[in-house]
Every structure is written in C-alpha cells, then in structure tokens.
Amino acid sequence: MGLFGEHQAFLPQLSPADRGTLTALGTTRTFAAHETLLTEGERSSHLVLLLTGWCAAWIATERGGQLILGLRSEGELIGEMAALDGRPRSASVTTLSPTTGLVVPRDPFRRFLSERPHVTALVLGQLTQRLRSADRERRALASLTVLQRLCRALVELAERTGRTQGTVVTIALPLAQHELAAAVGCTREAVAKALRLLRERGLVETGPSILRVANLEPLRLLAGAGPTP
Q: Final residue of a domain: which of 142, 161, 196?
C-alpha cells in the first residue's frame, strides 16, 4: 500500500546548517484539523514543510468523490511540485489533525536548492518515490477487491501509527469512513460494508474516533500480503 510511501522524511535528512537556513526562509503557521492547505488546480507556488500533525493529499474524481494519494506527516514537504515547475497544483492537501507547518515562498526555496545540489537530489528522490507509489496504487485499484484494499490500508495504518497491547492494535490516526473510502478508491457504502464484515468476524472494532485491529495477521492474509515471517 502507498498511503505513507517508502521514503524517509525530507527534514531529518538535512544537516543542522541546512535546516536552519531553510527555516529562516519561511513562516511557521498552525492549522486546524480538516483545514485545506493546498487546492488542486490553483496557481500558487509556495510549499509547506510539515513540522507536526497529519495531512492527506488527494485529488477529485470524475464522479465528484475524492481519492487519497497519500498521508503526509512530520518532516515531509508538500506542494514542492508547483514550487519547482510553476504549474497549477496537481492535488489538494487537507489536514487530518491540528498541524504546524513552515510555509516557504517559491523563489527563496529555488535559490536554496540551487546552492545545495545534495538537497535538490533529496527533493527529486522524494518525488520519484511518490510517483512509484502512485503506479503501485493504480495497479492495486485495478486488481484488488475493496476488502483487500481496505485490509491493506488498515494494516499500514496500524503498522505506522498503531499502539500495540498484546495482539490488539489501536490506530492513532483513525480515519473516518469517507476518508477510508477515499484512501482505498471506493464509495463510502462499500467501505461500510467491508468494515461490517470485519467487525462481524471480530477482526476490527470501530466507533467515534476509535479504530482497533484485534489481530494484524488475519488482515494481512485477507489483503493478500501473507503472514509476517
């Protein structure tokens, strides 16, 4: 699954000196949960370096729904494509929790990169990994059932944000049903049906702001990933 991608976050890879220089170029802002940071199609060129919190990058579908491309968190860049090529935003980004970010204008960021080829390589590496992740997700949409895609998303959420007690994992980033639907590329009704099936089998527990997985191994098997070695 590609909700989080496989890349290391951008900020931890910078030297202390580069971090300080980049921080001086921008303005730190706080955003409420469910606030839109970037809008698909808009012509703005700043970027945001996430310092705390979680965001979802998504695109609008032809049927008026949403498809989540990935979840972004502390240390990651968002909006860097428009900052580099000056074209309209390719996706929207919305916060999932209270979030803090460093907002950096395009021109100072481009000068920052031009003076640091090693940082440019980090940005290009991040873009390449996101494109590869998008390719894998298109393949999954074409070949996996809704239940399989949902199980893959739940496993990834549990592994990346979960708190474990015995075999039970409480997901610290419990997406709402419409957000899960956008993450796996289906309707809210289809996700609700798949979640009901998992609840009836005792594999998950859901509620307001609660998402728990009773045991990850059955979900891995349902997702087609196989058990953990």
A: 142
